[in-house]
């Protein structure tokens, strides 16, 4: 029978005699006595099957198929099972990204960027189990010091948030016992990145906008509180409820929360003139969407809007 020896709080050693009569042991930490008892039971079943040459019982075979690579590696080390093929960082990311069919295109782009930065610093052939907290610390320094596009705290925070997500998924899949990024805190974003746009400044920006479409984009953001670009892409004139003086806004960023896939916003008096101007043109040209300017099949990108709007703000003379 496999025996259990407790070595400290949450640490256990399960010992057994293999088919050659050698005394072997499997150690576990950060665990419970219940888990140790269950592990000992399955070790006894595996060892018994190895000694007798009989097939494993169904419950232990099922248990083996569900355990993570870390525990499987410990069992293989004492010749209870054959070593599993090693899952590398690159293989895991490829499989995880393929699973995430729920990501919007803009989300996919952000995750592709995060993955590329991670693989630029940690080789894709690195086994998942060999990635440590030291790798995580080094990656944080790499983003902050070596990548010019990561000077923004918000950008670094998003990349790190995504990477932490990947390793949490690896833990849930039992590929690793703990995430090396668990102890990494996201960079704090200072209040100085926020700026209140006064009515006077808003007016100057609107005057600097080149056409009706750009005035409407800015007005929807400033007066309607609409997220740019996720909530203007796909915004149709059929969503403008003139008789109710409201606009139905579909929100891709919050649609995964119950009851938060859409909301109604008032057509505020400050917003109405820009909506009326755009509607007049839309009727004449047969536009389906509120924002038709340089539309691609997936709408306006955040990068494009940011680039154009920065030029407009610079022209208006309202840069903070």
TrEMBL record:
InterPro entries registered for this protein in UniProt: CB, DNA_brk_join_enz, Integrase-like_cat_sf, Integrase_catalytic, Integrase_recombinase_N, SAM-like_dom
Positions of the Core-binding (CB) domain: 87-171
Source organism, top-level taxon: Bacteria
Keyword DNA-binding listed: yes
Gene3D superfamilies xrefs: 1.10.150.130, Intergrase catalytic core (1.10.443.10)
Record keywords: DNA integration, DNA recombination, DNA-binding
Domain Tyr recombinase: 192-320
GO BP, sorted A to Z: DNA integration; DNA recombination
Family annotation (SUPFAM superfamilies): DNA breaking-rejoining enzymes
GO molecular function list: DNA binding
Protein name in UniProt: Site-specific tyrosine recombinase XerC
Natural source organism: Bremerella volcania
């Amino acid at each position: 029978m496999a025996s259990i020896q407790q070595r400290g709080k949450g640490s256990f050693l399960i010992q057994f005699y293999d088919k050659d009569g050698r005394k072997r042991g499997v150690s576990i930490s950060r665990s419970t006595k219940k888990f140790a008892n269950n592990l000992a039971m399955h070790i006894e079943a595996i060892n018994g099957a190895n000694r007798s040459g009989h097939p494993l019982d169904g419950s232990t075979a099922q248990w083996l198929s569900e355990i993570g690579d870390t525990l499987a590696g410990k069992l293989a080390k004492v010749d209870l099972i054959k070593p599993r093929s090693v899952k590398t960082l690159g293989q895991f990311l490829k499989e995880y990204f393929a699973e995430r069919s729920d990501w919007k295109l803009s989300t996919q782009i952000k995750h592709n960027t995060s993955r590329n930065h991670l693989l630029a610093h940690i080789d894709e052939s690195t086994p998942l189990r060999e990635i440590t907290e030291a790798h995580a610390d080094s990656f944080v320094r790499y983003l902050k010091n070596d990548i010019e596009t990561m000077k923004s705290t918000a950008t670094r925070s998003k990349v790190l948030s995504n990477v932490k997500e990947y390793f949490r998924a690896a833990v849930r899949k039992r590929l690793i016992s703990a995430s090396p990024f668990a102890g990494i805190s996201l960079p704090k974003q200072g209040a100085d990145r926020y700026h209140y746009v006064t009515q006077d400044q808003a007016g100057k920006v609107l005057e600097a906008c080149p056409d009706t479409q750009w005035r409407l984009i800015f007005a929807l953001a400033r007066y309607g509180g609409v997220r740019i670009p996720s909530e203007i892409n796909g915004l149709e004139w059929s969503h403008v409820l003139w008789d109710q003086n409201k606009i139905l806004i579909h929100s891709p960023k919050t649609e995964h929360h119950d009851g938060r896939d859409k909301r109604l916003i008032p057509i505020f008096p400050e917003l109405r003139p820009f909506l009326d101007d755009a509607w007049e043109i839309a009727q004449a040209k047969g536009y389906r969407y509120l924002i038709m300017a340089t539309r691609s099949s997936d709408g306006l990108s955040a990068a494009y809007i940011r680039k154009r709007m920065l030029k407009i703000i610079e022209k208006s003379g309202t840069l903070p």
